[in-house]
Amino acid sequence: MIPQSFIQDLLNRIDIVSVVEKHVQLKKAGANLLGLCPFHTEKTPSFTVSPVKQFYHCFGCGKNGSAIGFLMDYAGLGFVEAVQELANSAGMIVPDDDQRFTPEERTEKKAVSVVQGEVMAQAERFYRQQLRQAEEAITYLKKRGVSGEIAARFGLGYAPDGRDGLRTLFPDYAAKELQESGLVIERDPNEGGASANSRYDRFRDRIMFPIRNTKGQVIGFGARVISKGEPKYLNSPETPLFQKGNELYGLFEARQDIRDAGYVLVVEGYMDVVALAQLGFPQAVATLGTACTPVQVQKLMRQTDLVVFAFDGDKAGQSAARRALEASLPYVTDNKGVRFLFLPSDHDPDSFVREYGAEAFEKEIKNAVPFSEFLFDVITKGGDLNTLEGRARAQYVAKPLLQAIQPSALRLQIVKKLGELTHTAGDELESLLGLAKPAVKKQRAPQRQSRPQIVSLGRQVVRILLMYPELVPELEEEERSAIEQFDPDDAQTLSDIVNATHALGENVSFAALTEYFRLSGRDYDHLIAEVMNGHDFDMAAARQQLKGSMRQIRIRLITEELNDLMASGKALENRQYVLDLQNEQRVLQQQNIEDKGVS
After folding, report:
1. 230 DSSP 8-state letter
2. Topology, domain 451-598
3. Pairing mode of beta strands 369-370, 32-35
4. For 108-186+198-242, CATH number?
5. What 3 state SS string does 96-153 have?
6. Which residues of the chain have pLDDT under 70?
7. CATH 3.40.50.300: does it fit domain 247-369?
8. Zinc fingers (CHC2-type) at which residues (predicted)?
9. Strand 184-186 and strand 264-267: pairing?
10. How far is it, in rounded angstroms, from Cα 116 to Cα 110?
11. What values do phi and psi take at 415, rounded to 5?
């Protein structure tokens, strides 16, 4: 894990406005900046960035977070990747989580990545230039209906048909970076031959498809043979820059189109992605010749709430869909969905659209098989639910699949349906499958009519402390107890803020605190929205408002206690205590009057 202290220091050095405005046009709106949300389609700006809070929030779709969260949501980066990118821009070095590497080794690793990245960028430019004079390759692309605009969008290129075509680009053809980047292959010396001829280009006489990471950097290539030859498709090997199971072809190019469409379409080949973009479906991406992985699904879920997998309807397509289903299990929730589109066995997405039209393909996407339906197909396949053995087998198959799904309303519905199919009561089935039940919030007793004002005051306190956690040390234990007497929800929230502030230390801030809550799985989106929607005020005003709110809470507690003493007839026997309470009440009220006079 990256130390929390480093994350705090990073957030304190980074200005979220400079991070966001690279991707979103912002205009001044009072103390904040306003723009069109990059995460959903809107005509009226509802996306707010606060320089004071170092936080963004969209009042339309609810997306919010720190500069780290923005890069994760917008660019589809993982947490570590987002921290690394921000750290690079701030000139900071991310400490290794287990300190396996010395500072010198980390510096060397970073230098190697930079060199390999530059080598890949040069190769991409070379292949693009070669395509301009490769008539056979141009003819092939035209036959596939690829326009010059789409070729430029994806940076398509051509690897010339020669043993060492890259030698013209890299005079030092023996450089180790060429082999480490996967651009050349070193022949085994035991095979014989002169050492000068032991190295040759990996890609020859092929259409080149640059594979980019979420930052747009070329990290690998996919290549398709033009005429006859095997393999039909060839990928870059695994390198420090490129891991097939972590990347998706076309994701960088499709990010905005995915948001506009409201879903991402996952297909099997590079050419399908390029062809679909030409035919009006630019929200398509492709896996890289391997089965879909959980990392890929997670990246897609950061871009959209719906992932549609498109497969052939044959046996191989069903098998690939099963693997995609398993990869999706940890990320499917009540608001994040997956669907499965099975095309006729004689069609791929490209050929289907060309034969039946874009509207027909759009209809197929809308009618794609829901996640739950395909899940039950997998669970019940090959079993007879009319027999005890068949029902037991279905439960056996379902157990690891359902355990991988997060506790949610969706999983509850799936368990309920499985119980009906296997004639098993819900509680018994949950126990049999070893499923943890979602936490249920306890019902509180009805509160007195005067309580809403008190709850409002408690909420005001937690909002102030969330915005300015630096004030937490000034909150006395008696004041925390006072809030606890009013409302358990506010007390729990307050406790979370206090504990998190102590854990983060002196460099705590609103952005660091909310990032801490996000990483720990606590959901305070509603409270964050309230803070973002409220008026910005400085630390001095916040401190004064906090003290005033706490006095108001104490005054109301005293009033309740005095009323209870009067109603119970115990006021006389506790006369001195009553006088002390009344005196404290007057002092607090006078302090409130004085504060209002100052303000």
Report:
1. S
2. DNAb Helicase; Chain A (1.10.860)
3. unpaired
4. 3.90.980.10
5. CCCCCCCHHHHHHHHHHHHHHHHHHHHHHHHHHHHHCCCHHHHHHHHHCCCCHHHHHH
6. 1, 96-112, 188-197, 436-456, 480, 483-489, 534-537, 571-573, 578, 592, 594-599
7. no
8. 37-61
9. unpaired
10. 10
11. -65, -40
